[in-house]
Design brief:
CATH class of the largest domain: Mainly Beta
Number of domains: 2
Radius of gyration: 29 Å
Strand content: under 5%
Order of helices and strands: HHHHHHHHH
CATH architecture of the largest domain: 3 Solenoid
CATH superfamily of the largest domain: E3 ubiquitin-protein ligase SopA
Shape: elongated
Number of helices: 9
Structural class: mainly alpha
Distance between the termini: 106 Å
C-alpha cells in the first residue's frame, strides 16, 4: 500500500517537486496493477500439489490449460486469472471471485459456481453444461455462440443474452475488418465487448479504432505504396475521419490511387517513349538504291 509522507521544515526546488510528482503519477498504475495481479505463490503451489486451495489468493495466476478437474477452490480469489482452456470439470468454485478472469474454452461441466462473481469474465467457447449458477453474478460476462450450458440457470433469458453477445461480437469483428483489414485479437475483442456491455456505442468503438495508431500506420502504408511518401497530417486526419464515418480501408486505398497526385506519379514513372540509345534499339535502314 502506498503511504503519503508529510514533510516539514525542508525546502525543495520546483524542479525536484515536478520530477517527484511525475514519477509518482507513472508508478501509481503499476502499483495498483501489482496489487491486483500479485497472487500468493504458496497458494498456487498448494493448488497444483493437492488440487485444493480454499480461500486462497490466485489473483492473475497463470493456469492456462491446467488440469484442475474436481479442484476445491471454494471462496478463492481468482480475479484476472488466466484459466483459458483449463479443465475445471466438477470443480467447487462456490463463492469464488472470478471477476475479469479468462475462462475462454474452459471446461466447467458439472462445476459448482454458486454465488460466484463472474462479472466481466470471458466465457467464450466455455462448457458450462450442468453448472450450478444459483446466485452467481454474470453481469457483463462475455459469451459467444460457442458458450454452452447457460440455459440451465438463467431463467429462460439465456437465448436473448447469447444472441446479444453474438451480435456484438460480429459487429466488432466487422469494424476491425473494415478499419484495420484484419480480425480482432483476443484482448481487443474482450475490451470492446466489455465496453459495449457497459453502455458504450458501436460508433464510439469505431471512432476509437479509427483513431488508433494501427489505423494511422495502415493509412501511412498506403501512402508510401501508392504515392511513395509518408502520409501528411491533413491526409491522416481526413482518412481517419472517413474510417470513423463508415469507409473501409480498401476504399481509402482506392481513393488515394485515384488522386491527381497518384496519376501524376504514375505518368512520371512511366515517362515518354524511350529514344533509341543502343544499336539493338535502332531500326535498320536500307540504303540500297
Amino acid at each position: 500500500m502506498l503511504k503519503v509522507l508529510a514533510v516539514s521544515n525542508y525546502s525543495f526546488s520546483p524542479q525536484w517537486v515536478r520530477r517527484t510528482i511525475a514519477a509518482t503519477v507513472l508508478l501509481l498504475p503499476l502499483a495498483f496493477a501489482a496489487e491486483v495481479r500479485a497472487y500468493d505463490r504458496s497458494d498456487l503451489e498448494d493448488l497444483l500439489d493437492t488440487n485444493s486451495c480454499r480461500r486462497c489468493d490466485l489473483r492473475g495466476a497463470d493456469l492456462e490449460g491446467r488440469n484442475l478437474r474436481g479442484a476445491d477452490l471454494e471462496d478463492a480469489d481468482l480475479r484476472g486469472a488466466d484459466l483459458e482452456n483449463a479443465d475445471l470439470r466438477g470443480a467447487d468454485l462456490q463463492d469464488a471471485n472470478l471477476r475479469e478472469a479468462d475462462l475462454e474454452g474452459a471446461s466447467l461441466r458439472d462445476a459448482n459456481l454458486k454465488n460466484a462473481d463472474l462479472r466481466d469474465t470471458d466465457l467464450r467457447d466455455a462448457d458450462l453444461r450442468n453448472v450450478r449458477l444459483n446466485g452467481a453474478d454474470l453481469n457483463n460476462a462475455i459469451v459467444n455462440r460457442g458458450t454452452r450450458g447457460l440455459g440451465d440457470d438463467r431463467d429462460g433469458n439465456d437465448r436473448d443474452w447469447n444472441n446479444q453477445n453474438n451480435d456484438a461480437e460480429r459487429e466488432i469483428e466487422r469494424i476491425y475488418r473494415e478499419v484495420l483489414g484484419r480480425r480482432p485479437e483476443r484482448d481487443g475483442l474482450r475490451n470492446y465487448l466489455r465496453r459495449l456491455s457497459q453502455g458504450e456505442s458501436l460508433q464510439n468503438i469505431r471512432e476509437d479504432i479509427a483513431d488508433s495508431r494501427e489505423a494511422r500506420d495502415r493509412i501511412d502504408e498506403i501512402y508510401r505504396q501508392v504515392l511513395g511518401r509518408p502520409a501528411d497530417e491533413e491526409g491522416l486526419r481526413n482518412y481517419r475521419r472517413k474510417l470513423a464515418d463508415g469507409w473501409d480501408i480498401d476504399r481509402v486505398q482506392r481513393d488515394i490511387e485515384r488522386s491527381d497526385e497518384a496519376r501524376n506519379r504514375q505518368q512520371q514513372w512511366q515517362g515518354p517513349a524511350p529514344y533509341p540509345n543502343s544499336d539493338s534499339d535502332r531500326v535498320p535502314i536500307d540504303i540500297r538504291r
